[in-house]
Design brief:
This protein is α+β, with helices and mostly antiparallel strands and 1393 residues long. The protein is built from 28 helices and 74 strands. Residues 439-463, 900-959 are annotated as: Disordered.
């Protein structure tokens, strides 16, 4: 019998109830806790009841590690033992549950002695005779998922051994072991060999520790790393809240958090490590077979760390280790590695790899600037972490972090970097609730609802109006095909309408806020509206149940006054009265349709298009969706294919997942028990091939062949285990193509094709571009090449097998290798990796499905070899400032929809955004008058432009406007509409507020304010001009003519100026010439004697603007004193107090005499200096020629669809960066004098975001604030004069490293970009190496602009972007606009949202 009383002995058969499994990939033994006997259940129930009346509650500093006590968890007391203590925080082990628990003093109490007589209710057990199959002895994610299912099961077991000393049972459970062997993630050991392995893991300290004498006598002896022990990783319960220290930040998805409660224990552990390792002068033997072994390693700081061996470089005698208590990686000499003694494993690892909850990279990865910013928020700081849940497959905990004053760091980072995954729960207020929750799970839908694939009806059917075009790839074949490279993953908020698992609608989470605002505005706009005839196909319809207004499409007209409509933002169809329809306003057309149609992936046969699901499966699907919706759980949607039926209605074949469940996986058993009946395949066609993850999980190893390389961060691999599938597919494709070549085929076909490669063989392909040449992407290999039309064949719809085989090429990237490596690195990798076999360790999976891998070939780790060969670590340090300074001061993402208060209803005063001055956004006050909704202007100017007309009549001038009568002594209430300084500002009369509203309304009324294009314009002409910030029209006068068709205009009713293209001005209708100018140019009377604006420094100007309310927010009393030319001297009062301008005395005089004389003297000196050295006026530019080809990155996009590029391998930039790094060492750098520093002057400016100095050019001045252009990167910034210094001659030698570009083929005089064009261009090119060809170079006034053609990853960007270019001759199609479901759904079939 076992010496553990009342429990089974060795060799006995028992039943055990598994209560908890210890899940961790690095825990080699399968450890679990279970109950052996139910005979004493009554005793434990009695004990559980008894301890609910505990003894004395703990006081401060009471209790020590090892003490038995009672701990309260969720209101219930449990027997426990103290593991550690830090102040009032404790970690205890719940003896009857087999788990650790973190708690505080107030939740601990002493128990009575009799409470601890009964042995633990659960016992610690190990599953016998199974170990991981991987070389690293770690469990795969699939194995962990399987082990997770064991909890709660009662199983028959054989007691193979009882380890009395450790109170551990080795249990052989045949039904589990057999499954693990058959599923391929466990290897079978004999009982003797497994016993030997366990005994080695449990060796006592005496066998591994040596005395001091022995140490001294064995100096110089060799030691080997061993794997007798493994680190223990305590599992954290979901929603645990802990104070943590952030020890490492690699990305928002890889943050290491160390539990602060164990700080003292870790400090003691560090001292113990130092004492144990420093005195051992031994040579440690390590080899590649020891990867994954625990060890002690001394870092660069001289300290010893508990570590795990990651890589071995025998020739260099160095290894890479992961410091498990800090999450950091280091390269250390072999001589600084030691085996760990057993006692150093007792302390569990309390540093967890975490991912920020609710943060996503939107499929474009993380930039260095974003990661650096995150590091400033977190690294080495103590924060509060809420561990939301653990993702076993990813090996991370999703956390929400809180900083000082409970600031939510996730939200702070997400908002700042525009990567927050929002869940607008209040949007549910607008949801059509009756569709999802009110209906029964019946096979018979409501008779008014349109059936799944679009039921054919008698009479005319408006199928062309269905919202399918932008869900398919038809409208953007070139772009869409390129991104069909792996499964798309994006986030949806609710599934919005369900017909069946074959036909349901989803909404994207990231647009929820826009949809909520649009719904709110539509309810207000259409409230009380009346029916008007001639409602178009795109309309607004009132739902018969909740009486709310929704965007809709008319899809069928009845003989009675009823129509069938599709609610395009939710997916439901309904029959409604014709009188419940309204014409849709253009302002409600910009947001794309928010619902997209889906069909659930068949988990048993993914190739089936539509399935006859049984009732149990349908009920399970509804329950899954309803539970997610009721708990506000965000679902992840993965698209595996896109298909369409005969009516061209598009369905996305998808799987839906919560963090804990995949609905397809959950329904496997249901499908197996009652196989679904397949619908006719011929009724559906695939618009993409099927995609699959091929069951590749993070942390697993795969043997792969690299088939094609774009660069180290984008290459394609095939799995060696799929080689037979690939060969069989190749054989079948060539056999079929041989038959197709003998028959006559249609000349036009879709994006899927068979294409002949350079080897003369046929392969599956997808057409990416048709103009100027045909580009085909070979989906199973990754190549994209130009193909002759004669080498293309259509894919027959009957080729079911060929269509259904998943795409075989997986997109990969080398982990820990920077994105911006030089071309030599990519060329070397392409030459040496293509068509070669490797062992690939999957480190992570990016949201777009790309696999981050470490490649091995025998003992060579390719990632490390590349970094060493090309000295990437050193290069990355030199480039770090460049990367940060890409400063990529990116423009904020384009808004799809804006609430009314941000649109023209507030009549924003236009400001000069071009010259960089402070934006003056005075608003015509609406407190006395509401602007009619019909005049609200939307942000997209194309919706309000009518067909252009020409008029050769002479344009009016400013003098043609009637004058306003103002006499000295006049007192009036005014607003300040625009303010430059106390010597120059503009006022509007409060009494004229309604007239100002009226003129702005009429100018922006499509019927009254129709724009007429003009081409012959001169300075002084009076026109109407569009202000860029709000896309609205105002009266303006042309002040200056600039190059490239640009003009400087002054908005005469407000006073501010802006530089705009000639295409943004039009002829002013005669009716607007009958009204006077509504702004009056003024100067403050008590500042008028100065007469020199340069004497008013920034503080004075800023104080004055604040005092008068420069944006029109204050009502002032104005007294007109006298008129000097066109400017009135005035005095201002606010509530009886006069507004004065106080100018510091030092601004007026100094030791050298009168300020005017001083200013003239400085000016003369400057002029003389420039005459002596004219070249110091400007930076020189690169010698760029037409036809020149360069590898570049886009460093800064502009609003006007121009962008700045920088050569990828610029040695000059390294030289500049090095010179700038020495700039801070200059003892007395000279600051500039803003009063004498002309625009266009070169300088050195401090970039506030990274506090580094960069070469710059002054482009605008406003007091002591300057706007500068960073000439080597292209981004602009406002800086204080104190942060601008004179440039040195050395830094003037190199030409500017950034050059301004514009895509060739897009003439702004003949069209304009779609509102989403900038976003699409950014998505195509951000952080990607581009091949640029210069087609034209325009040089004007020391400035250059290059018209270019760009290629990226095999596609011509100019061709792709044609989809977002619109001719100004074309009136927008409301149906096309309202049915334009967000292109990210199909365009980014490889991206996460």
């Amino acid at each position: 019998m076992s010496s553990i009383q009342e429990f089974p002995s060795r060799g006995s058969d028992v039943m055990i109830l598994i209560t908890r499994v210890n899940l961790h990939p690095l825990c080699v033994l399968v450890e679990f806790w279970g109950k052996f006997s139910q005979e004493r259940t009554a005793d434990y129930q009695s004990l559980a009841k008894d301890i609910q009346s505990p003894g004395k509650i703990f006081q401060e500093n009471e209790g020590n590690p090892g003490d038995q006590c009672l701990a309260q968890m969720d209101g219930t007391w449990y027997r426990s033992r103290i593991v550690s203590r830090n102040g009032s925080k404790y970690t205890v082990f719940l003896t009857d549950m087999g788990m650790t628990y973190n708690t505080t003093t107030r939740n601990l109490a002493w128990g009575r002695k009799e409470h601890f007589i009964l042995p633990p209710e659960v016992e610690f057990c190990v599953l016998a005779n199974v170990l991981p199959v991987s070389m690293q002895n770690r469990w795969s994610p699939m194995a962990l998922e399987f082990l997770k299912t064991l909890t709660g099961k009662s199983l028959k077991a054989y007691v193979q051994d009882v380890m009395v000393l450790h109170r551990m049972f080795l249990l052989h459970i045949p039904c589990i072991s057999k499954q693990m062997y058959e599923m391929g993630f466990a290897r079978n050991l004999s009982a003797d060999r497994f016993q030997e392995f366990v005994l080695m893991s449990l060796k006592s300290n005496s066998e591994t520790e040596v005395s001091t004498d022995t140490k001294q006598s064995s100096m110089g002896a060799c030691e080997r790393l061993h794997k007798q022990e493994m680190f223990m990783y305590p599992e954290l319960q979901a929603r645990t809240v802990e104070a943590v220290i952030v020890t490492e930040v690699t990305s928002p998805q890889r943050i290491f958090c160390q539990l602060k409660v164990f700080s003292q224990e870790l400090k003691k552990l560090s001292e113990q490590l130092t004492q144990c390792c420093d005195g051992r002068m031994t040579t440690c033997i390590v080899g590649p077979e020891m990867i994954g072994y625990p060890c002690a390693a001394r870092g660069a700081d001289g300290k010893w760390y508990r570590s795990v061996l990651q890589q071995v470089f025998p020739s260099n005698k160095v290894v890479e280790v992961l410091n498990v208590d800090f999450g950091t990686k280091q390269i250390v000499q072999v001589e600084n590695v030691r085996p760990l003694s057993a006692d150093l494993f007792r302390m569990p690892v309390v540093t967890y790899m975490c991912s920020l909850h609710g943060i996503e990279d939107r499929g474009v990865g993380w930039t260095n600037a974003q990661i650096d910013y995150l590091k400033t928020l977190l690294l080495y700081k103590t924060v509060i972490a809420k561990f939301e849940y653990q993702s076993i497959s990813e090996g991370v905990y999703y956390v929400t972090l809180y900083g000082e004053e409970s600031v939510n760091i996730n939200n702070l980072f997400g908002s700042k970097q525009s990567c927050l995954l929002e869940c607008e729960k209040s949007l549910q207020d607008y949801a059509i609730q009756s569709t999802l929750y009110g209906r029964q799970h019946s096979a018979q839908p409501d008779r008014h609802q349109m059936k799944g694939g679009g039921k054919e009806r008698d009479g005319k059917e408006s199928t062309k109006a269905l919202p399918v075009e932008d869900l398919s790839l038809n409208s953007s074949h070139v772009a869409a095909v390129h991104h069909v490279s792996n499964p798309s993953e994006f986030w949806i908020q609710t599934v919005s309408y369900i017909e069946s698992p074959n036909d349901f609608w989803c909404q994207l989470v990231h647009s929820a806020g826009h949809l909520k605002m649009l719904m709110h505005d539509m309810q207000a706009h259409y409230s009380g509206s009346v029916f008007e005839p001639l409602v178009g196909t795109a309309c607004v319809a009132r739902h018969p149940d909740n009486k709310m207004w929704y965007r809709a499409l008319v899809i069928h007209k009845h003989e009675t006054p009823h129509v069938d409509v599709l609610f395009i933002d939710y997916g439901q169809t309904e029959t409604i009265s014709l009188f419940d329809l309204r014409s849709i306003c253009k302002e409600f057309l910009t947001l794309p349709g928010q619902a997209f149609r889906c069909s659930l992936l068949n988990p048993v046969d993914p190739t089936s298009a539509i399935n006859d699901w049984n009732e149990e499966a349908i009920a399970r699907f509804h329950t899954f969706v309803e539970n997610a919706a009721s708990n506000f759980v965000i679902l992840k949607c993965t698209i595996y294919a896109v298909m369409y039926n005969k009516q061209k209605i598009v369905f996305n074949v998808v799987d839906l997942e919560t963090p804990f469940e995949s609905i397809c996986t959950s329904m496997v058993n249901l499908v197996k028990s009652v196989p679904p009946k397949k619908a006719s395949w011929s009724s559906f066609s695939l618009d993409t091939y099927y995609y699959s993850t091929h069951n590749v999980k993070t942390g697993t190893e795969e043997e792969v062949t690299v088939t094609h390389v774009n660069n180290v961060n984008h290459f394609y691999c095939q799995l060696e285990r799929n080689v037979e599938v690939i060969e069989d597919l190749k054989m079948k494709v060539n056999s079929l193509c041989g038959q197709l070549e003998t028959i006559k085929l249609p000349s036009i076909f879709g994006t899927l094709c068979f294409a002949k490669y350079t080897d003369g063989q046929w392969y599956r392909g997808q057409i990416k571009a048709t103009k100027p040449s045909i580009l085909v992407h070979f989906v199973d290999y990754g190549d994209t090449i130009e193909v002759n039309k004669s080498d293309l064949l259509p894919v027959p719809r009957e080729a079911n097998y060929i269509m259904s085989v998943p795409v075989q090429a997986l997109v990969c990237a080398l982990s820990d290798v920077p994105n911006n490596v030089c071309s030599e690195v990519n060329n070397w990798f392409e030459t040496n990796a293509t068509e070669c076999k490797f062992q690939a360790l999957v480190v992570a999976r990016e949201p777009d499905g790309k696999l981050l891998v470490e490649l091995y070939q025998r003992n060579i780790q390719v990632n490390a070899k590349i970094k060493k060969m090309f000295r990437i670590e050193i290069i990355s340090v030199l480039k770090s400032q460049q990367v940060k300074n890409e400063a990529k001061i990116r423009n904020a993402p384009l808004e799809l929809y804006k609430p009314p208060h941000q649109r023209q209803s507030c009549v924003k005063e236009p400001s000069n955004a071009q010259d960089g001055s402070e934006e003056s956004r005075a608003q015509v006050k609406s407190k006395n008058k509401n602007v009619p909704k019909e005049t609200q202007q939307f942000s997209n100017p194309q919706l309000s432009n009518l067909a252009p007309q020409t008029n050769t009549d002479k344009l009016p001038n400013l003098a043609d406007l009637p004058s306003k009568t103002i006499t000295p002594g006049l007192v009036a209430d005014v607003y300040i509409s625009h303010c430059n300084s106390p010597l120059s500002f503009f006022v509007q009369f409060v009494s004229e507020e309604d007239e100002i509203f009226s003129i702005v309304e009429k100018l922006n009324d499509p019927l009254l304010g129709q724009k007429t294009d003009i081409t012959d314009v001169q300075s002084g002409n009076l026109v109407q001009a569009e202000f860029t910030d709000d896309s609205s029209w105002y009266r303006a006068v042309v002040r200056e003519m600039h190059a490239k068709g640009m003009v400087l205009v002054e908005f005469v009713d407000f006073g501010n100026t802006a530089i705009i293209p000639l295409s943004k001005i039009g002829r002013l209708h005669e009716r607007f010439l009958q009204l006077p100018i509504y702004s009056t140019h003024c100067m403050l009377s008590n500042a008028a004697p100065l007469r020199k604006e340069e004497f008013l420094n920034g503080e004075v100007v800023s104080a004055f603007k604040t005092a008068v309310g420069s944006n029109g927010e204050k009502q002032l009393t104005c007294r007109f004193v006298r008129q000097s030319r066109s400017v009135w001297e005035v005095s201002l009062e606010e509530e009886g107090m006069e507004v004065v301008c106080k100018v510091p005395v030092k601004s007026l005089t100094d030791d050298s005499g009168n300020a005017n004389d001083k200013c003239e003297q400085v000016k003369e000196e400057l002029d003389q200096k420039l005459l002596q050295n004219p070249c110091c006026l400007y930076f020189s530019h690169q010698d760029l020629q037409e036809g020149q080809q360069l590898d570049v990155y886009i460093t800064a996009p502009n609003d006007d669809q121009t962008f700045w590029c920088q050569a990828a391998d610029s040695k000059e930039l390294d030289k500049i960066t090095l010179s700038l790094s020495e700039f801070d060492k200059v003892e007395d750098p000279r600051h500039i004098d803003t009063t004498t520093f002309p625009l266009g002057s070169p300088c050195i400016a401090l970039f506030s975001k990274d506090q580094h100095w960069y070469r710059a050019e002054v482009i605008d001045k406003d007091g002591d604030e300057l706007s500068v252009l960073f000439v080597d990167y292209g981004n602009q910034s406002k800086v204080k004069a104190a942060d601008v210094k004179e440039i040195t001659p050395v830094l003037m030698e190199s030409p500017t490293q950034a050059f301004l570009c514009e895509l060739e083929g897009f003439d702004s005089s003949n069209g304009s970009w779609d509102y989403s064009a900038a976003e699409e261009l950014s998505a195509l090119t951000t952080d990607k190496l581009l091949q640029l060809t210069i087609t034209r170079v325009i040089r004007e006034a020391q400035k250059i602009r290059c018209f270019v053609q760009i290629e990226c990853e095999g596609q011509v960007i100019n061709e792709v972007m044609k989809c977002w270019w619109k001719s100004c001759m074309t009136e927008p199609d409301p149906v096309a606009l309202i049915t334009k479901v967000d292109s990210s759904i199909t365009y980014y079939l490889g991206s996460a949202f």
